[in-house]
Design brief:
This protein has 963 residues and is an all-beta fold. The protein has nine domains: 161 residues, Jelly Rolls (Sandwich); 107 residues, Sandwich (Immunoglobulin-like); 94 residues, Immunoglobulin-like (Sandwich); 78 residues, Immunoglobulins (Immunoglobulin-like, Sandwich); 75 residues, Sandwich (Immunoglobulin-like), CATH 2.60.40; 88 residues, Immunoglobulin-like; 86 residues, Immunoglobulin-like, CATH 2.60.40; 90 residues, Immunoglobulin-like; and more. Helices cover 1% and strands 47% of the residues. The strands form 17 sheets. Strands 1, 2, 3, 4, 5, 6, 7, 8, 9, 10 and 11 form an eleven-stranded antiparallel β-sheet that branches. The protein has a five-stranded mixed β-sheet with strand order 13-20-19-15-16, with no helix packed on it. Strands 22-28-27-24-25 form a five-stranded mixed β-sheet, with no helix packed on it. It is extended. The chain starts with 40 loop residues before the first strand and ends with a strand. Keywords: Signal. This is DNRLRE domain-containing protein.
């Protein structure tokens, strides 16, 4: 008998928490809904009623074996069908199947239940005709915590697979495994299953075709012709409103396993285009292609295939082009703006289904026109925009878009367009339009955008009329010439119209030189109708003031208060209170006061001080300036001659702090300008001198003397580099001295401050003091990093001293060799010392400099390693320079490198090595004659000792002088 005790019959596939439950219906829906998916039909089969159908019966679904009242064992299996029609066009993101047990025969026995995908339920479904089992989806089993329990399963893969197969329904089965189906303890019943869904509506693909030229999808029996440059097109939309993209694929018809996929791009509207390499498909072959959409989550199914046939053969004949208005050749005809008719003919070539054409200036960028029948003629209308040489280039096209040879139809457009100018008066005021045309013109026409054409008469090829512009802006005026009523030419005039008033002044403009304090005026003229006043201001952001204009024009008197640049902004005011755009008027006013500039007051460190001369620039913008008079600190008046309104003088301040310079410009008539009083501040820091003068030298003492810039100085605080601040008392004359011995070379800073008897401190004077290194720097190609060269070879060392101007010679020796000397080069800071190497291994060069006064520098030690490479020399082919010539024999002498050389191995240009014996002094020579047109050769020489050891190789560059 059945019992309903609390225990779990089967294991749970997954615990479902916070699962979104969705419903799918035939109407469009969002990804989430409110109702679960339930079976559209269900059935069970009974082993004791093998031919009886049990479809959509009321009650629970039996599964497994149970003993009936008649004592017989009945075995049951249950089937459930879900309608997939509402899920068409969807991707199932979640499909949680839930089946609740309603009764279990024996909860003490661990249950086991299978979930199968089967064929559909049929009207004759019975034990003997059950739905065929197609796929075992899940086996549930094990001990559970509650009974009856619930089965959970993710049905999404099965649902998606069924939709992908094109099925309209999915049928599942619940049963006990066959090997245990007869166990009565495993019998149970289930309620109706439900499926909680979360779906994504898939992108929809439509409007498949080819473009450039536009062609349809193509069928297997009527494929679309296409060439290698074909562009594929498809429209992709996402019902959920998110962005979707397109993927395309091509494959040889009948060979889908050779599908090749590629992506497309879009310019908007969901229309995607793409291209791919079609060159691998043979001429005439049938190619299938398809498209599918992709949103952020899923891919749609591939569309039904389209078909194209590869056609790379273009029409072979250039088209005929003709026109009655625009005659071929150089005879001028027609005119700009005059429409012409052009006929294209393919000479009956039925392969031609269209003509594409363009003009000389690209106003027709490869337009395309199709004849009424293949190979037929067409007529197009085209209007040239400019005069002169023109052409239409026309190509025949076949259905695949292949272009045949073009015809370039050349013709000359007569210059019949009117030329014109507009004297713009403003907005709402009559502006004057003047047009000039060809001799036969009888009238002109003009047309403002959006308005009707206005015509006016012409006399002797010229005509004028008034044009009133209604508003501010840019206008493109269409102009036309007429001979009678026949339009013979058209052109365009671009005009910008502004209502900003006109501002004029005889005194204040960029061509004049007004002077501050001298009066003048401005005249404001309207550039719009109904002006009653003007608002004006000087400078940007200045306060606007109003001046009335009873007749539309106003005059503003003005006296500039000072010199400089001025900006006058003016707006007109109309009777209705509206204002115009602002007009901006620039002018410069001369300041009658001289301009004074004192040099060296902003440099750092400060170099100015009492008793130190300063350069002063004097400038005046007044006309006819001949000179300047000036006084410093109330002293005697000085004069300076001006050149082009400028003079440069030198003044010597007698005090620290503020100094005052009074300056007037002198004019040609002897009068002088107003006076400029210019006050400048002189640094109060002490003045510093030193002995010996000039640059210092490392380890050589220097005496610095501090001179007061202020009265009453009793002491100085000073700091030398790397030392603490020190104090020294001032002598009776206010000066003091301190000695400094620089320990390193470079730019040193000495800081000095004076202190008065009342404790007042001056500004600090920073002095840059250059110190020269007293050591000799040595540079050379040989160093301690690796041995180079060899005994007998020479090398060059560079001897450098920062005191090169004082050095007269360098003393040097290598290791324990005798001391030698070399004079300092008079034209350089570097002296080149050439040494012949005499020993292998580590060598030390000792160098010191001697100045003209006998001062010796510290000794510099330079260590370098000498290798064992032989010495090579040739009189005919000196190394590194051109020598000899083709066919000229050269002698090459080998020596040195290291003691004990008995032979030399050499090779030329990587050839086989050759050995030559050395004499008792370790010397040998060879001859070599360059031949041919090779001007660069390499000789490599290696010395060999009696014990078989070899020296470092020596590479010698031979440069053969060309003939």
């Amino acid at each position: 008998m059945l019992r309903t005790r609390r225990a779990l019959v089967c294991s749970v596939l997954m615990a479902v928490a916070s699962t979104a439950v969705v419903t799918m219906s035939a109407a469009p829906a969002a990804a989430a809904g409110s109702s679960p998916l339930t079976p559209s039909s269900w059935a069970y089969v009974d082993s004791q009623a093998p031919r009886t159908t049990f479809i959509d019966r009321a009650g629970d679904a039996p599964v497994g074996t149970r003993t009936a009242a008649d004592g017989r064992a009945h075995t049951y299996r249950s089937y459930f069908t879900f309608d997939l029609t509402p899920l068409r066009g969807h991707a199932i993101r979640m499909g949680h199947l839930t089946v609740r047990e309603t009764a279990v025969t024996d909860c003490t026995v661990p249950g086991v239940v299978q979930l199968w995908r089967t064929s559909p339920i049929r009207p004759n479904t019975s034990w003997r005709n059950p739905p065929a089992e197609q796929e075992l989806l899940r086996t549930f089993g094990g001990t559970a915590s509650s009974c009856p329990g619930t089965l959970f399963f993710d049905l999404a893969p099965a649902l998606n697979a069924a939709i992908g197969r094109g099925q309209t329904a999915l049928t599942i089965e619940l049963r006990i495994p066959a090997d245990r189906e007869g166990e009565v303890a495993l019998g149970r019943t289930f309620g109706m299953p439900t499926v909680a869904l979360l779906t994504d509506r898939l992108p929809v693909v439509s409007n498949l075709g080819l473009v450039y030229p536009d062609r349809g999808c193509g069928t297997y029996t009527r494929p679309t012709p296409a060439n290698d440059s074909t562009l594929f097109r498809a429209t992709v939309t996402d019902p959920d409103g998110t962005f979707a993209s397109a993927e395309f694929s091509v494959w040889p018809a009948g060979r889908p396993e050779q599908r090749r996929e590629f992506s497309g791009g879009t310019y908007g509207g969901g229309v995607f285009q793409a291209s791919t390499d079609l060159t691998g498909f043979p001429e005439g072959s049938l190619v299938a292609w398809a498209a599918r959409g992709q949103d952020h989550q899923d891919l749609s199914q591939w569309s039904p295939p389209c078909f194209l046939r590869i056609d790379r053969t273009a029409p072979g004949t250039a088209p005929i082009v003709a026109s009655r208005v625009y005659l071929e050749g150089t005879t001028p005809s027609g005119g700009p703006g005059v429409k012409g008719r052009f006929w294209f003919s393919a000479k009956g070539d039925r392969d031609v289904v269209a003509y594409s054409y363009t003009d000389i200036d690209g106003s027709v960028p490869h337009a395309r026109v199709a004849p009424r029948w293949p190979g037929g003629p067409v007529m197009i209308e085209w209007t040239p925009r400019t005069a002169g040489q023109q052409y239409l280039e026309v190509w025949p096209e076949d259905a695949a878009g292949n272009r045949g040879p073009s015809t370039r139809y050349r013709f000359t457009v007569r210059n019949t367009a009117p030329e014109g100018r507009v004297e713009v008066a403003g907005v709402g005021l009559p502006s004057r339009l003047t047009l000039t045309g060809v001799p036969e013109v009888t009238q002109f026409g003009y047309q403002l955008p959006g308005q009707a054409e206005v015509r006016f008469p012409a006399a002797n090829g010229t005509g004028s009329t008034d044009v009133t512009f209604p508003a501010v802006g840019s206008y493109e005026i269409t102009t036309r010439s007429y001979a009678g009523d026949r339009m013979i030419g058209s052109g365009r005039l671009s005009v910008h119209v502004d209502d900003a008033p006109t501002v004029t002044s005889a005194e204040f403009n960029l061509e004049t030189s007004p002077v501050a304090g001298r009066s003048g005026s401005f005249t404001f003229t309207p550039r719009s109708a109904g002006v009653v006043a003007y608002l004006y201001s000087f400078g940007f952001g200045g306060t606007e003031q109003r001046v009335e204009a009873p007749g539309g024009t106003a005059v503003l008197p003005f006296t500039p208060p000072a010199g400089g640049w001025y900006t006058l902004r003016v707006r007109s005011v109309r009777a209705d209170g509206s204002t115009s755009n602002p007009a901006t008027h620039y002018f410069s006013v001369i300041d009658p006061h001289p301009v004074v500039y004192v040099h060296d007051l902003t440099s750092w460190p400060r170099r100015d001080g009492p008793g130190l001369p300063l350069q002063v620039d004097l400038n005046s913008g007044l006309p006819d300036v001949t000179g300047f008079v000036y006084r410093l600190n109330g002293g005697a008046e000085q004069t300076a001659t001006a050149s082009f309104g400028s003079a440069y003088v030198t003044v010597t301040p007698d005090r620290a702090g503020d100094n005052t310079l009074l300056v007037r410009a002198v004019l040609a008539d002897g009068s002088t300008s107003p006076e400029t009083e210019h006050t400048f501040s002189v640094w109060s820091g002490p003045l510093v001198t030193w002995t010996p003068a000039g640059s210092g030298v490392v380890d050589k003492p220097v005496t610095f003397t501090f001179h007061p810039a202020l009265p009453g100085v009793v002491r100085y605080r000073y700091t030398f580099p790397g030392q603490e601040e020190q104090t020294v008392a001032a002598g009776p004359d206010g000066t003091a001295s301190a000695t400094y011995v620089p320990g390193g070379w470079g730019l040193h800073t000495i800081a000095v401050t004076s202190v008065g008897g009342d404790g007042t401190a001056s500004e600090t004077r920073d002095v840059y003091f250059d110190v020269l290194d007293n050591r000799v720097s040595v540079y050379g190609a040989l160093d301690e990093s690796a041995p180079r060269g060899g005994v007998g070879n020479s090398t060059v060392f560079q001897l450098y001293s920062q005191r090169a101007g004082e050095v007269v010679e360098y003393l040097y020796r290598v290791d324990d060799d005798p001391v030698a000397s070399i004079p300092q080069r008079p034209d350089s800071t570097t002296t080149y010392l050439t040494l012949t190497l005499t020993r292998n291994g580590l060598n030390t060069l000792y160098v010191q400099s001697r100045t003209r006064d006998g001062d010796l520098s510290p000794v510099t030690e330079y260590r370098f390693l000498v290798g064992t490479a032989p010495y090579v020399v040739s009189a005919q082919y000196p190394e590194g320079t051109w020598g000899g010539g083709p066919g000229v024999e050269g002698t090459f002498e080998f020596s040195g490198g290291t003691p004990g050389i008995v032979s030399f191995d050499y090779r030329i240009d990587g050839g086989a090595p050759t050995t030559v014996a050395a004499d008792a002094d370790g010397r040998a020579s060879i001859t070599y004659t360059p031949t041919g047109d090779t001007y660069f050769h390499t000789l490599v020489v290696t010395g060999r000792k009696a014990d078989g050891t070899t020296t470092d190789p020596r590479s010698y560059a031979i440069q053969v002088q060309p003939r």
